[in-house]
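ugh ok fine here u go
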Amino acid sequence: MTAPTSSRGADRLRVRAVGGLSRSSPRPSRRSPRPSQKAPWLYLAPALVVLGGLLVYPIYQLGLISFFQYTQAQVSGGEPTTFEGFGNYAELFSDSQFWQVLLATVVFAAACVVSTLAVGCALAVLLTRVRAVPRLVLMLAALGAWATPAITGSTVWLLLFDPDFGPVNRVLGLGDYSWTYERVSAFFLVLLEVVWCSFPFVMVTVYAGIQAVPGEVLEAAALDGASQWRIWRSVLAPMLRPILVVVTIQSVIWDFKVFTQIYVMTNGGGIAGQNLVLNVYAYQKAFASSQYSLGSAIGVVMLLILLAVTLVYLRLLRRQGEEL
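structure:
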């Protein structure tokens, strides 16, 4: 009877000893594998390939053609392509019409950007003040304008302002006044159409940003007696600065390279080219005159201007301490 008892005790001691050793022995540490620095680039690789094919290669071809003599004769193979260097740019910069068109483009784009931002931000604030049903109606109407193709919207606006059958002249009592005959009125008509099809992007984006602002901040400003304009200028605008930067840069790019609205509503640039912008001017040089190298040079100049404006704007914001 003593032997089994002693054997059981020995077994218990061995189990305790083994358990103690197992508890005291250090366990192997399980470190999570460090993510590879190449992993993000592998995820972005498909998008970069698509962007390279859709953006980088066409820009490369655009810049390449601008350094050659490339007209209809070279396209048809009647004459060899010759290297011109910066000759096309020298010819372009010596043309007085180019500078006139450039100035008109800058002024027109600036007016479109300011008007689009003003209308979009005002309607975004209005969306926060109305009830659900009017908000839904306004959102659907704005998205309908945004989804309308540019050529369709331009044709509709021409019909609205038609001197013979348009309802706008009848309501305003202007008779048979032609909005596209004079330069300023034609640019103003195109500006209205551009703002109409562009403000929904600003409105929806800014409205989403306003919804993310804490309600306590706006209530505190209202309790302090601030007007709606003061609340926007001193509270909302600083808090929405990153969003406003995005919509401003996007509007600059869109409005600076307007083509369809000008081409359709002014019949290719207006009487004697009085309503030309750079995109329509490049189209006339490249396809109407078969000077593809000059048209490419204009495209390169537009690209450089847009890059310069965007970089300068972002640098100014960084100097002011804004994080983008």
